[in-house]
Amino acid sequence: MIIKRNAADMAAALASGETTSVALTQAHLDRIAEVDKEVHAFLHVDSEGALAQAALADKKRAAGEKLSPLAGIPLALKDVMVQKGIPTTCGSKMLEGWRPPYDSTVVSKLRAADVVILGKTNMDEFAMGSSTENSAYGPTHNPWDLSRIPGGSGGGSSASLAAFEAPLAIGTDTGGSIRQPAAVTGTVGVKPTYGGVSRYGLVAFSSSLDQAGPCARTVLDAALLHEVIAGHDPKDSTSINAPVPAIVAAAKNGNVKGLKIGVIKELQGEGYQAGVLNRFNESLELLAGLGAEIVEVSCPYFEYALAAYYLIAPSECSSNLARFDAMRYGIRVGDASGVSAEEVMNLTREVGFGREVKRRIILGTYALSSGYYDAYYGSAQKVRTLIKQDFDNAFLKADVLVSPTAPTTAFKIGEKADDPIAMYLNDIATIPVNMAGICGMSLPSGLAEEDNLPTGFQIMAPAMKDDRLYNVGAALEAALLSKWGAPILSHVSGLGARA
Amino acid sequence: MSLKYEDVIAKYEPVLGLEVHVELGTASKMFCGCNTIFGAEPNTQTCPVCLGLPGALPVVNEKAIEYTIMIGLALNCSIAPFSRFARKNYFYPDMPKNFQTSQYDEPICINGFLDVEIDTDEGIKKFRVEIERVHMEEDTGKSLHMGGATGRIHGADYSLLDYNRAGIPLVEIVTKIVPGTGKYAPEVARAYVAELRDILRSLNVSDVKMEQGSLRCDANVSLRLIGSDVLGTRSETKNVNSLRSVERAVRGEMIRHAELLNKGERVVQETRHFQEDTGLTRSGRSKEQAEDYRYFPEPDLVPIVPDATWIETLRAALPEKPSTHRKRLQEAWSVPDKEMASMINADVLEIVEATVNLGADPAKARGWWLGEIARIANEKDVTAADLPITPKDVAEIVALVAAGELTDKLARQVIEAVIAGEGRPSEVIETRGIKVVSDDGALMAAIEKAIAAQPEVAEKVRGGNLPAAGALIGAVMKETEGQADAAKVRELLLKHLGQ
Amino acid sequence: MAEISRDDVANLARLARIDMAPAELDHLASELGVILNAVARVQEVAGQNVPPTSHPLPLQNVYRKDEVTPSLTPEAALSAAPASEEQRFKVPKILGEEA
Ligand SMILES: [Zn+2]
Q1: What is the DSSP pairing of strand B235-240 with strand B270-274?
Q2: DSSP labels for B172-195?
Q3: Which CATH architecture is the domain B440-496 placed in?
Q4: Per the CB < 8 Å rule, is C97 touching B271?
Q5: Among A381, A403, A433, where does a domain finish?
Q6: At what angle do helices A466-484 and A219-229 cross, to 10 degrees?
Q7: Predicted confidence (pLDDT) per residue in B327-375, tens digit
Q8: pLDDT in tens, B33-52
Q9: Chain C, window 3-62: residues with a beta carbon less than 8 angstroms from a chain A beta carbon
Q10: How far apart, in whole angstroms, are the C-alpha atoms of residue B284 and residue B149?
């Protein structure tokens, strides 16, 4: 079945004439039609648009045009990314029916590379959550076990990969929303260096933390997609104006010999599931076996990262989400004769936002309000400095840092819905990377023995050294594959015979 | 019966502060490439950025920074080596993001001053207005309030929003408290705004049209009992859009405050709106329930760290200060203080200068603009500059008078006709057939006719009673419909009558 | 420790323009109290000598040239408007004063 191949292999099949983009796209649309009722990875499937893009890619190929490596390959787009004329909801009722009049830079780059966009994937509302349960359109189910969460906020993107509905997906990562879903679905996800991929057209949750990145089933596929979407964008003032590191080359030549790999003492132990830690330690042994030097590093301020994150992100979101006011776009509630604009805003925001979003808006409003700013937002920004310093010190001792991606495997849908703090703990290992603006990757490290569910291995590298992630990731991936004999996703069980 | 101004100042010392907003004359908006043309069709100059669409991001217009630095330098400010944008969070339908991108505790220019001169009882006196800060922000959209009787916000059924103005670069210039103005507070306020406007015009950074809202003044006024150091509660009067209104608003607020205080009532801290028609202010939004703007650094924009050589280049290129320029003109034209002051007061200095630059004699140019043209402007309740007569027209008229082709009386007719829209001076002269009658034959015929009509007067003149000639000259002028040169008529008449 | 009353939440909801029912205010007050107690620990290490970080990367002076680029057509600008009239966004009557 062609849909079970990696994107790089699909690209080879297109190049050799074995298949066409239209056929490949149709195969994925068929797969979506078959399984997405159960997985619910997609909020919107653009069959017509996807087939048209595929036909265009085929036509260019037939004409002998020089094409990008991913030309004609289907992709799933997280619904937080604006695509002209295509419904973009961010998983929120607030934006129900909104069709943006413009393309995000990521979409423009995908179009320029002739990547075929299948549709928009489900997510926690405005990317706030770790389970995709906060979507106004219902949760996404983990293909490994449909009663479990696929991670969040980008659970739709990760599930679409694990369910073979798409070989590539775009995610966004504010505190772990690419990496944690990758970990719990047995897929690969990369949060690039902040500023490495344009945020123009990414509906903002927390502007100083948000970063779009690639989701895939292999390290090389992630690198190929990363290369398509990365690069300077004059429309994003925080975009890095420097060449993109040689990530594809790194993914093709994974070699850790002589590399120093730092294990962060504070990101293991208490709160981490035994099976998660066991798979993590096995991976470390494999890396050591490949010639890497494993060292232990300490990042003492990481214990404050979660607290700082849950001040900074809500503060920024309280401001970013103020624009949803029923005046210019989105839903409007309570507009009747004699009702004022102010009342309509109040009613629309009450109805249009879900519980978690309102909780964070109120928390952020509090943290920024006069009299509390210094104690909360101001202090959180100082913690951010301390976390950066921790990373700076650690990178003096190691080329990359590693940890488990998430403390546990996928939990049951509904299990943590009423306990925000327990839910927030999912991101304990991924948040420091966003706070410092550096880059991080999660790749599968095997199944936990307790529940036979995937675990993730996180690699972190300094800002603008994204190639190191791919170098180490590719080496580890190859070693794990030869140990397992088959890719981890060959064990996906939730979809039964259809998997 | 309202309190007399003399009674207010006998008891209270006014405390004055001024905030001036200036729309910069850049081609594109502050954070996007939309056009800034005044009066364009509604919503034709908007884009995802200035409409605050989800996902859109701002990028700073370099020219706006340059203009702001120029303003800061012209106002003797220090340019901050590091400044930042911040978000000012509050909801209002004309503000698409529901936050204004502004500057808060890190403005770009600080600590300047501007000296203004006032004609006082003791002669011309200088007041120094200290500038606290000059910062950048963005303008809001415009709302039309529909339905109801007044077209005003109160009583309207709904509103219509046009975002063409949203995002136009705005500079806010904030003074410190201006001490020691005493009874001259209204005049100081006016002179400050006038001087500031002249400076901005000389810098060519704004079209500074108060009536179009490209220069807007908010006047903060409070009163304190003379001899007390307890500051009173201040009111903030907005919507003051002419120089005259600045003066009236300050005076009006001083009287209103004093009336309240004399009655033992308290002044409410609030925003008030100036009413052009009545010269009074009406209550706007009360600031009792303090707004909490929850400022925080704008995460979508990076800090401004202006290069020192850039600042020095801009400083070196600053034009002559309007005050210096005025001194130079006054000397060159040998104008007395009082008359200089009346030109400034009538706001005609610039047009007089333009007229002189076109070759007109300074005294004559001044005479026309301050005399006949000012009179007509006064009648029409507009400023001389707003009349449809140009410095070129006046220079032409002055030249025609000097050449003897027009008399002063005829010149007045031409001016009236030009203002009435009959065309340029040459066209008016042509179509109206205006010309000085200097042909001796034609004049002699008129003279003989006059003598024949009033033989007894002619006798008196022959007898040496020269003043009696006036009646005959008048008759000749009437006969020739004012087109004769009176001096010439007199000369011919006296010669004819043997004198 | 941080205590959040229902009135506090009501005031925050007013600032954030969300029309919350009393039961929601009560529920949120208790949740916020718990969350604030958890996040308040940032104050333990946020000393005077620690500079704040608001931008993850040390970028500065990012500008665009003052050049006009195409705007949206008014049709596109208004395409998602809940209501429009005379090529303008139509909104319910506005109570407050202009800022
Ligand atoms: Zn624009």
Answers
A1: parallel
A2: EEEE--B-S-GGGHHHHHHHHHHH
A3: Orthogonal Bundle (1.10)
A4: yes
A5: A381
A6: 160
A7: 999 999 999 888 888 888 778 888 999 999 999 999 999 999 988 998 9
A8: 999 999 999 999 999 999 99
A9: 4, 8-9, 12-13, 15-20, 28, 31-32, 34-36, 38-47, 50-57, 59, 62
A10: 19
